[in-house]
UniProtKB/TrEMBL annotation:
Keyword Signal: yes
Segments forming domain GP-PDE: 44-356
Cleavable signal peptide: 1-26
GO MF annotation terms: phosphoric diester hydrolase activity
Pfam families linked to this entry: GDPD
GO biological process: lipid metabolic process
Protein's recorded name: Glycerophosphodiester phosphodiesterase
Length: 373
C-alpha cells in the first residue's frame, strides 16, 4: 500500500471532526512506521548522538559503551580522516574544543584534523575538557580518553549483548575527497554491508543496520554511488548553500541574546523551496531527512525549526523518514514526536528511551561505574 493510500484509508476509517487532531497524529505515526518497516529501520529510532555524550565525553569509548548498554538503536558518529588515511570519529574539524592539542601541539592548535597522523591524534587527551566543562558529571577516569577510530567504534557496536547499528555522518566531506569510497571499503572489510552476519541480532540483524548521513548534496551523491543499497539521510540546514531562508539580519546585526533565539526566528523562504530540497534528496537516494529542531530551552544545539508538521508531511508524502537533531528533553520529545518525527538524535539516549517507553535497566551513571569509569 502506498503512503498516500494509507493516509486515505485511515482518514476514511475514522470520520468526524472531533478526532481531527488525534487522527493527524495517528496518521503520521502510521506513515512513519510503515516507511521504517519498508527500509528495515527501527521505529521510533533512538540515535545516540556522539554516544551517550551528555554523560561522558563525546565520541569516546565510555560514551559509546554506555549508549550500547542502554539499548540505543544507533551509535552516531562524525567521520573524518587522518593525515595518514585512517578513518576516525570526531565532530569538530579542529581539535581545540575537545582535546589538549594547544598543550601538545601548540603550533598546530588551530590546524584541521586532517593535518594530524593517527599516532598524533591518539596522543591527545580527549576527556579532560569534559570534566572542566561539566564538573557535575566529571570522573577522574575520563582524563586521558582517546579519540577513536571507526574500527574501534565498530568494535564497541559488536562487543556487547545489545547490538546497535551505526549512523555515520560524512563530516566536512569536501575536506576529505574520496572519504565515501574509504568508508565503503571499511564497512565492507568489517562485514557491515550486504547481508547481516549469520546469527546477528538486534539492529545489527536489520537491513538498516548502517545509516549514512550528510548535510552535503555532493556527498549524498557519492554515498549513493558507492553504497546504493545502504539507507541514507540528508541532514537539513537553513541558509547559504542549503535550504534558502527568508532574508533577514545576520546574527551580529539581529541583536538577539543567543544564537538559539536567532535560529528560532529563521524561516524557510517558501514551502516550494523546502519541497524542492526534499524532492532532490529523494531523487538522489535518501530514504529520509534529518531536520534541525528549535528546542524549548534553547542552548547550543537549538537551531531553526525544520520539523514543522507540514514539513514532516512533505517528507512522509514522498516516502521519507524524519529523524530530528539534537533533542535531549522530555518536554521537546513530547512536543515534537507527535508532529511526525520518526526518531531523534539525542545526547541523552536514556531519556529518549524512557520517552519511548523502553527504559534502560540501569542509569548511565551506574553503567559508567560498572564499565570501570
Ligand atoms: O548528525 C546529526 C547531527 O549530529 C547533526 O549535527 O553538528 O551534531 O553533527 P552535528
Ligand atoms: Ca553528526
Amino acid at each position: 500500500m502506498t503512503i498516500t493510500a494509507l493516509r486515505t484509508l485511515i482518514r476514511t476509517l475514522i470520520p468526524g471532526t472531533l478526532l481531527v487532531s488525534q487522527l493527524a497524529l495517528a496518521t503520521e505515526a502510521d506513515v512513519g512506521q510503515t516507511l521504517a518497516r519498508q527500509a528495515g529501520i527501527p521505529w521510533p529510532a533512538v540515535i545516540a548522538h556522539r554516544g551517550a555524550s551528555f554523560d561522558a565525553p563525546e565520541s569516546t569509548a565510555p560514551a559509546y559503551l554506555v549508549a550500547r548498554e542502554l539499548g540505543a538503536d544507533y551509535l552516531e558518529l562524525d567521520l573524518q580522516r587522518t593525515k595518514d588515511g585512517q578513518l576516525i570519529a570526531l565532530h569538530d574539524d579542529t581539535l581545540e574544543r575537545t582535546t589538549d592539542v594547544a598543550k601538545r601541539f601548540p603550533e598546530r592548535a588551530k590546524a584541521p584534523v586532517s593535518q594530524f597522523t593517527l599516532a598524533e591524534l591518539k596522543s591527545l587527551d580527549a576527556g579532560s575538557w569534559f570534566n572542566q566543562a561539566h564538573p557535575d558529571r566529571a570522573r577522574p577516569k575520563f582524563a586521558g580518553l582517546r579519540i577513536l577510530t571507526l574500527d574501534e567504534v565498530i568494535d564497541i557496536a559488536e562487543g556487547g549483548r545489545n547490538k546497535p547499528g551505526l549512523y555515520i555522518e560524512t563530516k566536512q566531506p569536501k575536506l576529505f575527497p574520496g572519504i565515501e569510497r574509504d568508508l565503503k571499503a571499511k564497512l565492507t572489510q568489517r562485514g557491515w554491508l550486504g547481508k547481516p552476519k549469520a546469527g546477528a541480532t538486534g539492529v545489527a540483524a536489520m537491513p538498516g543496520r548502517v545509516i549514512l548521513q550528510t548535510f552535503e548534496k555532493g556527498s549524498l551523491e557519492l554515498l549513493q554511488k558507492e553504497m546504493p543499497d545502504t539507507p541514507k539521510i540528508l541532514l537539513l540546514w537553513l541558509g547559504d548553500d542549503y535550504i534558502p531562508a527568508k532574508p533577514g539580519p545576520t546574527y551580529a546585526e539581529s541583536g538577539e541574546a543567543s544564537k538559539a533565539a536567532y535560529y528560532a526566528k529563521q524561516q524557510v523562504r517558501s514551502e516550494g523551496d523546502f519541497t524542492a530540497w526534499i524532492e532532490w534528496a529523494k531523487a538522489h537516494g535518501a530514504i529520509g531527512i534529518g531536520p534541525s529542531a528549535a528546542l524549548e530551552e534553547g542552548g547550543d544545539q537549538s537551531y531553526a525549526d525544520l520539523v514543522k508538521p507540514w514539513m514532516n508531511d512533505v517528507a512522509h508524502e514522498r516516502g521519507l523518514l524524519v529523524h530530528a537533531y539534537t533533542v535531549d528533553s522530555a518536554v521537546d520529545y513530547a512536543r515534537l514526536a507527535p508532529r511526525g518525527v520518526d526518531g531523534f538524535f539525542s545526547n541523552r539516549a536514556a531519556e529518549l528511551l524512557k520517552f519511548y517507553e523502553r527504559p534502560a535497566k540501569q542509569a548511565p551513571a551506574a553503567l559508567l561505574k560498572q564499565l570501570g569509569y
